[in-house]
Amino acid sequence: MQLAGGHVAVTAPNDITRVASVGAKACHERARDALAIEYRTKHDPPRLGLAALPNCLFGRIDGTKAIIPSPLSHQRTALLGANPHRSAPAGLQADGLACERALDLLSQGNGAPIRTAPGDAPRVRGYGLYWQLVSLSPAARGCPWDVQSARPRRDSLSVGNRTANLCRGRDLGSHRVSDVSLRSIRQTEIDMAPVRSPTPIAAAACLLASVASAGSLKDIDHVVLFMQENRAFDHYFGSMAGVRGFKDANLQMNGNVPVWKQKTSPALTTETDYVNPWYLNYLGGSWPEATQCMSAGSNGWYENHAAWNFGSNDHWAMNNTPWSIGFYKKQDIPTQWALAENWVIGDMYQVGDRQASARVVTDMFLTDLQESVVASTNPNRVSWISGSINAPGSPQKPDEGGNPYIDNNETPGCERGGINCYPLKWKTAAEYYEDAGVSWQVFQDADNFDDNPFAWFKQFQDAPKGSSLYTRGMQGLPLNTFYEQAASGTLPEVSYIVGPMQLSEHTPYSPHDGAWLQDKIARAVLDSPKYNKTVLMISYDETGGWWDHLDPYRSPDGTPGEWIDDPWGQVGHTFIGPGFRLPFYIISPWTRNGGVYTEHIDHNSQIMFIEKWQAAKGRNVTTDEMVHWRREHMADLVGAFDFANPDYSIPNLPFAPEPHRNANGDYDGSSYCQSRNPKTRPPVPYTGDGVIKDIASVVEPGFKSVRGKITEGRYLVFEMDGYALTNPGRCRPDGGATVTKVSKGHARDLQRWIVHAVQIGGDDFTLESAVDNRFICAGGKMCKDKQDAIVFTLGFEPSKGHTIKSKASSKYVSVADKKLTLEGSLSHWATFSVSY
Q1: Can you tell me whether residue 640 is helix, strand or coil?
Q2: Does position 521 have pLDDT exceeding 60, yes or no?
Q3: Residues β-bridged to residue 820
Q4: By the 8 A CB rule, do 223 and 605 touch?
Q5: Residues 244 and 714 sit within 8 Å (Cβ to Cβ)
Q6: Most buried pick, 85, 105, 438, 681, via CB within 10 A?
């Protein structure tokens, strides 16, 4: 819940031991008032969520009481102290502006708050919850307050005809209140305590400020881009609940053989024809440490394309290595999982460039974030900062370098055939920022693993010392300066972070060591006084020879800038990318507890996000260098954000141990690990206990809320007004699709659906029940024949949810009077991706 000059962070019971502290010292010095909300579900004991000024979360939990340290307020009650009639502390006057706008909405035209009789008091409502408004302090100029109490039964505070949401999309213990819960099952309303003065109306008006001044891209002041090295999505997150991983609802079948089964050869084993994905630490013992510094496969052009096998994606063991299909679980990389699960994870992010045969273009599968190029580090990092590798048909001229740039060539000139020409000469995104007056900066130490892509462009190489391109792009600033600027709230608008070699997560460098760097960067952002205006995006450049099970989403053959004839003559006519999926997550108040973002994205998406963000601020930084198909078919990430409902709470993050250092103080985690573990590659389980016969069995049970346009690959639950779209079940074989009450954890199997895209990359789908494989057909009946299935257009509006529209009738599937209906107006569903 957002207030003018204050906010509430509702903390789940299992995560309440540390409320949080963001810039705590500064906030303690200036804060005097606070707000506390007690909540209870029928499953949980009462708890308190506590917050004060923007970016400042305080307090500790003592039983069911929130205790506020003395610098914050005077403890006048056992629950929460209050200092009535106090205005904003000095230095916080700007935070009162939103409150004043809200007061204007409720004024009589002269700026004076409306005076109301007790019977006109605002009502507070809630869905299946017990809320206790213990005390209210807007902490904003012109907004005095009194302590009031309310016991609501729905989830909004209403004053007049305007409403401020209290718990949209929040996790409240074991009970989730979703966006569509605003029209709740329980409609009982209980009035607030009688109002004896106009001050509660002023306070209520401050609650409305977040609605009156709805959040948007303009609220962002800083975007931090941090790219790590060489990991694939399934390798890190295949066993995660609610993502398109090892429980793929639209699994690729090669004939009657699932893509999990990777072909072997007599050179590998004579015991089996296939090897399944396997858990790297299946043997236990010291292997969890040893596999941290193991290497698997190759990220080379030929090895990756040969493993892809013209779309069958089943030659990874044969043409890369059988270790390539090994994966970690949550306990092996807890920091990466915590950052991904506590904010929003993109499970369709693809590597920037990848080459493949045209043989199976008609048999594509939807994917998560993809590498931009099915190739090595340099081409993907170049895509990350410029939007192109200058493949034929790209906006660049052939003499601007690359032509295309598909390998890590840093030798001046071109390779045979006129390819991989170096240095590169086209305009980078940062130069567009420079032209528009957008501040930007590379942060890197002396050891940057040669991962700074600006250094591969001629204009940066030739930039005079002291010039902006040189100091910002080539030289950069140390990582310690990033931490200092984050702490002081003085980061540039756009930051690029390039980590050192040992912390890059590139094999054989440890995911644990990389986790320490991720944790340090994330905490710098979270502890910053500007966290409420900052976005941190963490991505990986390419897969590094690790396997992902999805056949990449790509352009039609012949698309300019996307297809080439393999210059090495190894894989024939092929596409540049996007390639295999990569880990990707976004940390910000607008992505907190955001679940899974399901749109097609790649490295270009980060550029497009900054373009949209700066356009919202009135600046044009649109690059002319991006390949047109990418701009049209990769998403801009805006749908991953819920600007209407920011969540400033900070979760408990796992401890990330500092990497080992040698006697000189240099990081040496990989060599130290290898010295302790002479063998870092475990034996491949072709047979025996390590074989996973049912790969879906390794997926953690649970769910994630869904953001973004719908894509295939998940088991989805659609909910509205406390009801879920439901298969009528085997007992009613002739019945039509219906709605039934939502289930705890969205776990009821009859409410589980699989979507099938009519055209890859489009918004039209058929809906199949996960229980009996029947489709929703004419008249809402359930039928077996996919050809008879109704085609639905699935839409998405950030902060509102998904829409389901019948393509034939152009009417929207909705819930009215506890029944499934078709309506002429928009109705939004809360969508969840479940893994049970």
Answers
A1: helix
A2: yes
A3: 815
A4: no
A5: yes
A6: 438
